[in-house]
Automatic annotation (TrEMBL), chain A:
Entries under Pfam families matching the protein: AzlC
Protein name as annotated: AzlC family ABC transporter permease
Keyword terms: Cell membrane, Membrane, Transmembrane, Transmembrane helix, Transport
A single BP term in Gene Ontology: L-valine transmembrane transport
Range of residues in the leader sequence: none
Localization per Swiss-Prot or TrEMBL: Cell membrane
GO CC annotation, single: plasma membrane
Family, per entry: Belongs to the AzlC family.
Record membrane topology: Multi-pass membrane protein
Residues passing through the membrane, by range: 25-47, 53-86, 107-125, 137-161, 168-187, 213-232
From TrEMBL, chain B:
Name this protein carries in UniProt: AzlD domain-containing protein
Ranges that cross the membrane: 6-32, 44-62, 77-110
Lineage, opening ranks: Archaea, Methanobacteriati, Methanobacteriota, Stenosarchaea group, Halobacteria
Keywords: Membrane, Transmembrane, Transmembrane helix
Pfam families linked: AzlD
InterPro entries associated with the record: Brnchd-chn_aa_trnsp_AzlD
Length: 234, 111
């Protein structure tokens, strides 16, 4: 067997092993994608727009944030800012996984991090730290493929299904429910709880600000209060 | 309903997509410039999701047509509280959605 074929065989093995490790995480994106699709169609986004949002941003929380805010009449600038603030946490993942992707070529390093969403990050990091994946880009790609595919398909199904559901069922309420399901994961200690209470309270208190700016004010208040709590507790 | 046109929506998707990709890529590409994120910065970054998600969801639950509504006639708030308790103990998104929607429908159509 010549060298190229041997290398292709290894790539295939790496990508398949990644897909096996990544498959369970893909299941977790199903309710998320469905809800995004349902919510997107209910605020008037088209199927291509909803699919594009899911496929190109590949971040559930930020996508739902945009849809929720636009549906509530927020200005586009506030919706964009909120989505970017929500996604700023990915810089942590980026820094944390960077040493493991160091030896990959330029193309890999510029493209692979696109898939750096929570579960993919956790699975790949775990494999790298056990020395199982040999730092191959193909393995990472394999881990990401099931989640990305199921997420996009779930969104499409959500759009199709959502278009036929009567308004009175209030399926859009699934969006705040997802936010509730997610926020508990970030409530790790007293400062994060205080940040949430202050953030929510602040946003409600200044809700009359134009363009949904109250969201950004509330977020800032929450971060400041959490920061102060961290400082007091050392 | 959003009144923004198709072009504006697509531009917003593009901006968020590129910005998100930059956040995810920055340290992988610049590796070596920054040895490790200081613990202090980690802890501050950990505050952001809690603060921003609460700021998004609280108005959805506590307000009705712009006015504070914390009575038992606010079905969304009650269902949200039930969902929060379920989320806290199960950490399961699917169960949280099912129980939350079930509670809302019960309050809206049965009670």
């Amino acid at each position: 067997m010549n060298r190229t074929l041997g290398a292709l065989d290894t790539h295939r093995e790496d990508i398949l092993r990644g897909m096996r490790d990544g498959a369970p995480a893909a299941l977790g994106t199903v309710p998320y994608g469905l809800v995004l699709g349902i919510a997107a169609v209910s605020i008037g986004l088209t199927l291509p727009q909803a699919t594009g949002l899911a496929a190109f941003v590949f971040a559930g929380l930020a996508s739902l944030t945009m849809v929720d805010l636009l549906g509530g009449g927020a200005s586009i600038a506030v919706a964009i800012a909120a989505a970017l603030i929500v996604n700023f946490r990915f810089t942590m993942y980026s820094a944390s996984i960077a040493p493991h992707l160091e030896e990959l070529g330029r193309v890999w390093r510029w493209t692979l991090p696109f898939f750096l969403v929570g579960p993919v990050y956790a699975i790949a990091l775990n494999a790298y730290e056990r020395g199982r994946a040999d730092h191959h880009g193909w393995y990472f790609l394999g881990v990401a493929i099931p989640s990305w595919t199921v997420w996009v398909v779930g969104t499409v199904v959500g759009v199709v299904v959502g278009a036929g559901v009567p308004e009175s069922l209030q399926l859009g309420f699934a969006v705040p429910l997802i936010f509730i399901a997610i926020i508990v994961r970030f409530l790790e200690d007293v400062p994060t709880v205080l940040a949430a209470v202050a953030g929510g309270g602040g946003a409600v208190a200044v809700v009359d600000l134009p363009f949904n700016l109250g969201l950004l004010v509330g977020t800032a208040v929450g971060i400041l209060v959490g920061f102060a709590a961290q400082a007091v507790r050392g | 309903m959003t009144d923004y046109g198709s072009l504006v929506i697509w531009m917003a998707i593009a901006v968020v997509a590129v910005g998100t990709w930059v956040f995810r890529t920055v340290f992988v590409v610049l590796f070596g410039l920054l040895d490790d994120v200081p613990q202090r910065v980690h802890r501050i970054l950990a505050l952001i999701p809690a603060a921003v998600i609460a700021a998004i969801v609280a108005p959805d639950l506590f307000l009705r047509e712009g006015a504070l509504a914390v009575g038992i006639d606010n079905e969304q708030l009650l269902a949200g509280i039930v969902a929060f308790v379920v989320a806290w103990y199960t950490e399961n998104m699917f169960v949280t959605i099912v129980v939350g929607m079930g509670t809302l429908w019960t309050l809206l159509f049965i009670v």
